[in-house]
């Protein structure tokens, strides 16, 4: 391990092999730091926080401080961060609210400067949260999603896999998987074609998704009737089934079309 002489490490923290901690950083009681994690200068890692192997935390980040939630009364709650995450300058991550509650972050994510992950959020893997991306409590970000800079996401919103949200958007309803969304409030503009192609989704599946989006978002039908039409006219497939399941399980309703 390489621990700077000015760093403060609690004797009740657990640090694996090859961990690096920079100047003036603080690691509190109960923190678990995985192998080869790098924590740069002036960081604070506190609470019941675990950080997976290979992650890197840059200057000024505050990880695991108490939730910004008036309901929180000091219960034992947790923050679990997976492997190989990059957490840039001045990010803030909070644990869950309520006894045993968790905020969970997957692996291989990039959190750019000043990103905020609030209490009880669930962030998947291979996601990008750009500068000042802000997640309110209980937000779910599915795998491979991209959240643009200065985006604000309302409590309990779900952001679907392989979606992308344009910068400065206001997100108050669920973002469908495979979509490109933007605006204040956010609206669906179409498929995330670049993301779908980069992740190897075949041409036929993309065409089916494009047709499904036109039926659900642009046909003028009510969501119930549009979904019924979608199911009857689009051939079944992995992506279509996922989209239908996402719509059926939406709690806040879907964002609308830009048209």
Features:
nine-stranded parallel β-sheet, alpha/beta, elongated, Udp N-acetylglucosamine O-acyltransferase, Domain 2, 2 domains, UDP N-Acetylglucosamine Acyltransferase, domain 1, about 260 residues
Could you characterize the architecture of this molecule?
- It is a single chain.
- With 259 residues, this protein is of the alpha/beta class.
- It folds into two domains: 2-138, 3 Solenoid (UDP N-Acetylglucosamine Acyltransferase, domain 1), CATH 2.160.10.10; 197-248, Udp N-acetylglucosamine O-acyltransferase, Domain 2, CATH 1.20.1180.
- It is 17% helix and 27% strand.
- The chain has four helices and 28 strands.
- The chain has an eleven-stranded mixed β-sheet.
- β27 (179-183) and β28 form a beta hairpin.
- α2 (203-218) packs antiparallel against α3 (223-233).
- The protein is elongated and about 65 Å long.
Q: Tally the structural domains.
A: 2
- Largest beta-sheet characterization: 11 strands, mixed
Overall CATH class of the largest domain: Mainly Beta
Number of helical segments with 4 or more residues:
4
How far from one another are the termini?
56 Å
Count of distinct strands? 28
As a whole number of angstroms, the C-alpha radius of gyration is 20 Å
Strand content: 25-35%
CATH homologous superfamily heading of the largest domain: Hexapeptide repeat proteins
Summarize the structure.
The protein is α/β, with parallel strands linked by helices and 259 residues long. 17% of the residues lie in helices and 27% in strands. A hairpin with a 2-residue loop joins β27 and β28 (186-191).
